[in-house]
Design goal:
Strand order of the largest sheet of chain B: 6-7-8-3-9-10
Oligomer: heterodimer
Radius of gyration of chain A: 19 Å
Structural class of chain A: mainly alpha
Strand content of chain B: 25-35%
Structural class of chain B: alpha/beta
Distance between the termini of chain A: 26 Å
Distance between the termini of chain B: 34 Å
Radius of gyration of chain B: 23 Å
Largest sheet of chain B: 6 strands, mixed
CATH architecture of the largest domain in chain B: 3-Layer(aba) Sandwich
Number of helices of chain A: 8
Order of helices and strands of chain B: EEEHEEHEHHHEHEHEEHEHEEHEH
Chain lengths: ~230, ~300
């Protein structure tokens, strides 16, 4: 499986994605740094313009990094898998003496592993930037994390896993419609579902929600590949 | 010789429409099998089922003596194929595309990509990205990839598409060489009948999803190959003379002025005399040899009239 994942990275020009992920991470660091220390989220009177419960710095960090990487993952999934169906390279893949489910699983894992690592590293970089900045500048947001605490890292890893896995829902719908656009639009809708708030209500703070979402994501991942051996490659 | 590939009552139905129905074909080990049919006849559908990309609705495919199932992966190691058109990872070079193919096939002979590219005359362009290749070069790169792991069976769907006459000849020679020197069985579809005629040992003709005929090229040259073609003023009157006066049955009116007589023992002089005696003006008459194209047209037109 590891060999198949490496081959997926090679044939899909992973260097391009590494470069893009680095640019994205850099932009996120700058943007959130500006939010926290340069007052771009402040009202003209200098007070923070944030919804109730959103005045801690972890809220915009989680929101913007998750949003960006969910879309990034969906773009990669559509390029690795949905486009392969469209441009017929999947015909070639399915002519190899390898179980089709294994091929699809390796493609999904190749994207998942890359984005999970990228999201964890990006979040770490952003948190570290904020931590370093908070030592010498006053922050508009309340600093609500402790980088010396193990649970901080554990949460960071778990949340990243949930977000990256969510893209499997988008992949499933994109595969049904055989459309890269559908995959990416679905990931946008997922962001609204998970991060937006209606009045005071938001799914983001619900503890059960990530568990349900992860279970759903893996169910959709399973549905994307379970019938691959018997299905015609149309 | 044993069959390396055969299909039994192979049927594919999509949305209630039979794309192919009850197709039986038999490809012997070591031969070149030409699979002929007009556009939309069902050639690619059959090839997709043989390569396991599509599953039969009914019937079965037997490859190397085993029935093909959705989980038959081992047979894929022994096959090379191009279905529809070859596709590549365009940012990778031609050479890297072939190396990647070797990795997936589990075929580890380091010099085989080079050998394969040399055979197809692509070695000088090996390092160029596949996206810079012309249509003909892509077709040749597809064939280089199909033969890369020296398969026992090559499935090629219209492999000469996009090639110039020199390229077509190069491929014809290559196919013959692969068949003779390496014993590779080749199952090839083409709409250019003369291409297949010059290399195939056996041909199968498919029309409107049904197998019309499967016959060796040897037999085609032995049977009804010669015929008398007459250009007359009135083909219907000529047909009347042939059937009622000369008691011939094996003939066909092609259009208002042309008629072909397939009876083996017929002599153009006798026909000429008969036509003259019944005052049928003859513009020309003579014996001709039937090409594969004529045979193909005869069969498919019969299918049309059925």
């Amino acid at each position: 499986m590891l060999k198949l994942i490496k081959l997926e990275w090679k044939k899909n020009n992973i260097g391009k994605y590494i470069r893009n992920a680095l640019i994205l991470a850099g932009c996120l660091c700058l943007f959130i740094f500006a939010l926290a220390f340069l007052g771009i989220a402040n009202d003209p009177d200098g007070t923070l313009d944030a919804a109730e419960g959103m005045n801690a710095i972890s809220a915009p960090i989680e929101l913007f990094t998750s949003m960006s990487f969910l879309i990034f993952t969906s773009v990669m999934l559509s390029s690795f898998i949905v486009s392969a169906y469209k441009n017929k390279t999947m015909n070639l893949m399915f002519s190899y003496p390898i179980k089709r489910q294994k091929i699809l699983a390796s493609q999904m894992l190749a994207v998942w592993l890359f984005n999970f690592a990228a999201l964890v590293l990006t979040k770490l970089a952003v948190y570290l930037c904020i931590f370093a900045g908070s030592k010498c500048m006053p922050s508009s947001f309340f600093i609500d994390f402790n980088i010396g605490d193990l649970s901080f890292y554990l949460q960071l890893i778990l949340k990243s896993g949930v977000i990256v896995s969510m893209s499997f829902i988008a992949l499933f719908i994109g595969m049904i419609k055989k459309s890269s656009k559908t995959t990416i639009v679905t990931s946008f809708l997922l962001i609204f579902l998970t991060q937006a708030n209606v009045g005071d209500f938001s799914m983001a703070g619900n503890a059960l929600f990530p568990v349900v979402l992860t279970a759903l994501s893996f169910l959709f991942a399973f549905l994307s590949i379970y019938n691959a051996e018997r299905k015609d490659l149309l | 010789m044993p069959n390396i590939l055969q299909t039994n009552q192979l049927t594919k139905t999509i949305d209630g429409k039979d794309l192919v129905k009850n197709v039986n074909l038999h490809v012997k080990k070591g031969e070149i099998y030409g699979f002929l049919g007009p556009n939309g006849a069902g050639k690619t559908t059959v090839m997709k089922m043989i390569t396991n990309l599509w599953k039969p609705t009914q019937g079965r495919v037997e490859l190397f003596g085993e029935t093909l199932t959705p989980t038959s992966y081992e047979v894929l190691k022994r096959m090379g194929s191009i279905i529809e058109f070859p596709c590549f990872y365009d940012h990778l070079s031609g050479l890297d595309n072939l190396k990647l193919h070797c990795e997936y096939m589990g075929y580890h002979t380091p010099d085989s990509p080079k050998k394969s590219l040399e055979l197809l005359g692509l070695w000088n362009d090996a390092e160029k990205p596949a996206k810079s290749y012309s249509l003909g070069m892509r077709q040749r790169l597809g064939i280089a990839r199909a033969i890369l792991c020296m398969p026992e069976l090559l499935i090629l769907d219209e492999p000469t598409n996009g090639l110039d006459p020199a390229g077509m000849k190069q491929l014809r020679d290559l196919f013959r060489m692969l068949c003779q020197e390496y014993g590779i069985t080749i199952f090839i579809s083409s709409h250019i009948l003369s291409e297949v005629e010059s290399i195939a040992d056996t041909i199968g003709i498919i029309h409107k999803g049904q197998m019309m005929k499967e016959i060796s090229m040897e037999k085609i040259s032995e049977m009804n190959t010669a015929y008398v073609e007459a250009a007359v003023e009135n083909a219907k009157r000529a047909a009347y003379v042939l059937s009622d006066k000369l008691e011939l049955t094996n003939f066909k009116i092609f259009d208002e002025h042309h008629i072909r007589i397939y009876d083996k023992n017929v002599n153009p002089n006798d026909i000429s005399k008969a036509f003259t005696s019944y005052e049928i003006t003859i513009q020309s008459i003579g014996k001709k040899q039937e090409s594969l194209e004529d045979y193909f047209l005869k069969l498919t037109q019969e299918g049309e009239s059925c």
